[in-house]
Amino acid sequence: MFRKPKIVVIGGGTGLPVILRGLRDQNADVTAVVTVADDGGSSGILRNYINVVPPGDIRNVLVALSELPDLYLDIFQYRFKTSDQFLAGHAIGNLIISALSEMKGGIFDAVQELAEMMQIRGHVFPVANEPLTLNAEFMDGSRLSGESEITKAHKQIKRVWVTPSNDEDGHEAKPVPEVLEAIKNADQIVLGPGSLFTSILPNLMIHDVAKAVCESKAEVIYICNIMTQKGETDNFTDADHVRVLNQHIGHHFIDTVLVNIQPVPDNYIDFQEWNEISQPVGHDFQGLRAQGCRVISSNFLRLRDNGAFHDRELVVSELMNRLHQVHD
Fold first, then answer.
1. pLDDT at 42 over 60
2. Cβ of 267: how many Cβ atoms within 10 Å?
3. Pairing of strands 277-280, 227-229
4. 3-state percent helix, strand, coil for the chain, nearest multiple of 5
5. Parallel, antiparallel, or unpaired for β 123-126 and 132-138?
6. 200 contact partners, CB below 8 Å, separation of at least 6
7. Phi/psi of residue 100, each to 5°?
8. Domains in the chain, start-ordered, CATH in brackets?
9. GO biological process annotations for this chain's record (predicted)?
10. Can you say how many angstroms the Cα of residue 188 is from the centroid of all Cα atoms in its chain?
């Protein structure tokens, strides 16, 4: 009897939904594990006012895996105009997730309820059932807390870690058990694409999550970013991205890296519109192989709206190829 391959995608930010939308239409059992350490924009305001897990990343992932008609999803994604004062900048979906979190007494049960309402194909698991705070130490020895503060500092990051936001007793951040179960049973674990320090690592900095990923028999695939990110990965090569991941976990745990080698045309990027990015990620294939990685270099590029993104179909096709090669 055919068993759908189990794919766990770990991350946050805008890159994750792109890949999930492609995986949704494959014959696979997809689980998205989403960071809860975002504190910017509408998510941050709601988090501060009503002490809920920031809903923005979760909202985008729910939409990516939903089979509802586009009109319903457009309403869920609608963001109030800045002239609306009281509701300025808030997405309707963020308000719904926050309300359900209060009703259900936590983000995890709220998201499961919403997943059913939104006809999700797959599973959406917030990595923890409480808001987490991202902390960073920079190369100059200084420290900051809060994702938005860390990114705004535009300083080279040495390391990051997470702590429970309501941490009065110094307890360790704990994942929801379903996340660990999904990782344990996965056939493939995908990291990214997304901000290295603020979308991917916050999930892996929960000790039990990192341990589960390292102990899993699944192939761990890292989708390397196409562009470097200001204040996070300036001047990074693909090998630098993997090195940071491995250093945070404590050993070489990335099995395979997907690297885009299609050049981004000069003068195509609108750096005012896409003000978080700075330049294409450099290549260091020797550095990747020295870390025990299988390197899959190909054209994964999609140019649109004067920005450089991953091409959903090309990336998902490669992920499915890897599944077949590993399990055939």
1. no
2. 7
3. antiparallel
4. 40, 25, 35
5. unpaired
6. 10, 11, 12, 191, 192, 194, 245
7. -65, -35
8. 6-38+128-327 (3.40.50.10680)
9. regulation of cell shape
10. 16
